[in-house]
Amino acid sequence: MKKPFITKAQVEDIIKTYPTPFHIYDEKGIRENARNLYKAFSWNKGFREYFAVKATPNPYILKLLAEEGCGVDCSSLTELMLSECCGFKGSDIMFSSNVTPEEDYKKAYELGAFINLDDFTHIEYLDKLTGIPETIFLRYNPGGEFQVTSQIMDTPGDAKYGFTHEQMIEGIRLLMQKGAKRFGIHSFLASNTVTNVYYPKLARILFELAVELKEKTGADIKYINLSGGVGIPYTPDKEPNDIFAIGEGVHKAYDEVLVPAGMDDISIFTELGRYMLAPYGHLVTKCIHHKHIYKEYVGVDATACDLMRPAMYGAYHHITVLGKEDAPCDHKYDVTGSLCENNDKFAIDRMLPEIDTGDILVIHDTGAHGYSMGYNYNGRLRHAELLLHEDGSVQMIRRAETPSDYFRTFDFCGLLDKYIEK
Predict the structure, then answer these.
(1) Core-most of 100, 141, 257, 268, by most CB within 10 Å?
(2) Is the pLDDT of residue 122 over 80?
(3) Coil, strand, or helix at residue 84?
(4) Does residue 153 have a pLDDT over 70?
(5) What is the distance between the alpha carbons of residues 206 and 201, in angstroms, rounded to a whole number?
């Protein structure tokens, strides 16, 4: 059973200052998780985690992770700007983008970031914009289906990302002609895997590719980026990944493929977002209404604007009713928000304890791809982000939006001036 990292008493104290709904993050859990990741890959002296900014783009979170040795994985101009303002620069930044605008590449080049090319045609595109940096990465798409034992985990051949096998070879040759001296290769073949074999399988594919690329092009392959894809168990019946078993699986593949090829100086990178943050974030919301028609509905003060994964993907997020953790789950509810959309539901036909108006619900595993995917449909405003520090204190790390924020992009028309704070 999933347990919240905050108690009812803590939340009741918090809401005296910060009303529901809000996202809250657990500093202690985040730090411990980052340290375990680094321990799991300590056998590789060049290992580094590049946290996927898209998952939780908050400067307080980024700076916390920087203190634990992490870099950042950026995919847009604004993510680059955010990272720059947080003190990341040069090799602290991995820029992995696709269908990339000119200004994004220019900013990445200006910051000295590692640039990870997604498309063969972008070699000439980048060369004309900025020139080719001496160190550059290429994203690989092997096509077909990605399979572990007998299970198909995903279909890279249907994805828009990356170079084909032949394009990897020709791309490196072309980049070397244009002055590139050091290379990294990258791939992302499956999302949110809850298995200890995904990274080792992916690593072996990339290690074998690295050996082939060196043999066929003479390229100096310095880095292998396993990207993201290591997930979390959203449902309470699944066991989480064992990062130490994963690290050892990658180590075994490294020793079996790269070491015999004389390539034992390659650094391993990861770009984890969900694994790093999701379990350490909660969406805290309050029951404000009940509805009794063909089904039983619990209406809360959060909406899909605060967490769209259930509405967008039908994703499961576990729900705890604070103070009723030990009560029987003998009531079936749809837990809904207030949007004018029938998919604005955090749970459908969920067995929960009896919920009363005023009860506080914790929606689990919202620390990644939660707030960051928020939006303003129906004029709903996104809510605050809070950080629970290790000493038990709580800090607001992003204030709640106001109507003034919502109207501010109309400030040129003058009609809404009375609602826009000066």
Answers:
(1) 268
(2) yes
(3) helix
(4) no
(5) 9
**Bridge partners of 71?**
50
Q: Which of 231, 249, 275 is the last residue of a domain?
A: 275
Tell me: do 141 and 226 sit in the same domain.
Answer: yes
Burial of 270 (0-12, 13-18, 19+ CB in 10 A): buried
Residue range 171-180: average pLDDT?
98
Task: Give 230's DSSP letter.
Answer: B
Indicate the number of domains in the chain: 2
Q: 345 pairs with which residues across the strands?
A: 336
Report residue 71 as tokens. 């870099």
Q: Is the pTM here over 0.90, yes or no?
A: yes
Same domain, residue pair 303 and 375: yes
Bridge partners (DSSP) of residue 165 are none
* Residue 32 domain boundaries: 27-275
Backbone angles phi, psi at 190, to 5 degrees: -160, 150
The amino acid present at 370, given as its one-letter code, is: G
How sure is the predictor about 151, in pLDDT bands with cuts at 50, 70 and 90? low
Please state, in angstroms and rounded to a whole number, the distance separating the CA atoms of residues 232 and 243.
Answer: 11
d(Cα 172, Cα 120) in Å, to the nearest integer?
Answer: 10
Distance CA 134, CA 182 (A): 6
| Distance from C-alpha of 373 to C-alpha of 119, rounded to nearest angstrom | 26
Least Cα distance to 262 among 225, 220, 217 occurs for 220
> DSSP 3-state assignment of 408?
helix
Which residues make Cβ contacts (< 8 Å) with residue 243, sequence separation at least 6?
36, 37, 40, 230, 275
What residue spans of 86-219 are helical by DSSP H?
A: 102-111, 122-129, 165-177, 198-217
Altogether, the residues listed in the chain come to a count of 422
